[in-house]
Amino acid sequence: MSRLSPTVVFCLTICLSATLRAETDQQARVFDHRIKAEVNQEIRDIFPLVHSEIDARVVAGKVTLAGAVTSYRERSRIERRVAEIEGVRYVNNRIQVERVPIEIRHHQLNGSRRGRASSFNTTSKPPGTEMVRGLLASKVDDLIVIRGFRGGRVSATISDDAMVTLDGEVVSHEMLSAGLLVFAEMEPENGEMVARSLEAYSPK
């Protein structure tokens, strides 16, 4: 049997190396994609009621987190949960803590308020549900007033079947008090705003 020439051997070696490298790169991309999906799911579990401000990038099992939260407690909680995901080799936590404000990105609040109804800047407001972020300025029974991060106040009535959480735990709305950071999902009903869900956090 004739021997392969050195040139042929070299070419075969290069081809095999390229094939193995391509397969390895493809496996790494699939692996990173799975990790990113799990990271995004963890973030949704931590912030189930609102659009998250956190973005995750995964390269070779190394996760870089960016965005903003309202407390160091949330920042540490996210990092800890992400670090526990199988396959994560390292977490680079670049999340910023913005106590006041994380800006409302989809709606601008109108400062005027009449009675128990709230008024929104409707320049780009879609119909239906409103996502409101701010500080709980006052609460009397089921009536709340939220001071938006861009100024202005929004009043609403908490619906009887509203989903209410405090620092991630499901609670009665009676546990809420002024000074909490709140993320509220509201919708108009009979000329007034009704809160369908409230996610509250202690300002720590």
Automatic annotation (TrEMBL):
Q: Where is the BON domain?
A: 31-99
Question: Source organism's superkingdom?
Answer: Bacteria
Q: Name one Pfam family in it.
A: BON
Q: What protein name does the entry list?
A: BON domain protein
